[in-house]
Amino acid sequence: MSFKKRKICVVINSRPNYSRIKSFLHEAKKSKKLDLHILVGASALLYRFGEVVKIIKKDGFKISQTVYSIVEGENPTTMAKSTGLGIVELSTHFQNLKPDIVLTVADRFETIATAVAASYMNIPVAHTQGGEMTGSIDENVRHAITKLSHIHFPSTKKAKKNLILMGENPSKVFLTGCPSIDLIRNTNLSLNKNILTSGVGDKIDLSKEYIILLQHPVTTEFGDGLTQIRQTLEAIGKLKDGVQVIGLWPNPDAGSDDISKGIRVMREQKKNLKMRFFRNFPPEDFLRILNNSSCIVGNSSAGIRECSFMGIPTINIGSRQNLRERSSNVIDVSYDKDEIFRAINFKRKKRYKKSKLYGEGLAGKKIAKILSTVDLSVKKKLYYRF
Length: 386
Description:
The protein is an alpha/beta fold. It has 14 helices and 13 strands. It folds into 2 domains: 6-186 and 361-373, Rossmann fold (3-Layer(aba) Sandwich); 200-347, Rossmann fold, CATH 3.40.50.
């Protein structure tokens, strides 16, 4: 009697999606019980956001389908339209593929499109990074995806507790940690001289101090992005010792153009800043650059999640990561150049005790094992205990 593998469809829609599911892809690819299919869509296909699809292919993964669903414009209307288009396009691909399980990552608008399409088509949805608390529209989207999902892989103990408090079946909530921590554990983090061959701007000397700048728009503060990034850049510009800046362009959320505009204006004006900006890095290269930096500045969850495990100082600006669990490596500041400047000077060059808040680096293995055996059902009910 032959054993039928479970057909797992993983949808990768953005730059961080890939790094936060890559370790599972490796485990699923070599599994005798899982049949891996990868759909790549949305900003992961676009040049201006780093063409993640090319990195995935270079890493040896076969892509089953590509899904074009981004409506250009980076404003609240285009985010809503992109979500709707994602549902339309993904539904067609799911119909053709007929997966046993769809695995979706985190809390972006592309992610909820995946969950809506699969759940309406009676396909069990597995979700990573649910139960976490933050700011912005991501908070609403993440919890909505939870209610559309059937199998949950939270990263922290508190996130697991939150999922159960939200009425999810405790037997379908599995504490795995975050798969991005797996990459840190399994990567040689030493730098090589060819790591910065792409990008635009000044030449960066990796033997000297540099900081990472990664600041995204806050969708619930649409229209304020230009002012916010100016405060950050002016704070960095006040540093007197010629610190270098390695930056990444923002994600495609509403307000992205404002952040990009602020960066371009500062680059043109120079203002004693030695900066180089990149569309993307392969996940392991990003970790290498992060590990050797003096700190990360901005509002990316990488500063809270990956950097907690690496002990890298994080200056977290504004409300985007408002309620996310954090370790001692993080200092929170408002959109104020003086406050940001003081925080950078206080935190930079320090190293903190490595935290296992977001896992110990075994998430991919755990998720693969669970998905190969867990009972599958699309029927749900609230599991509140009164």
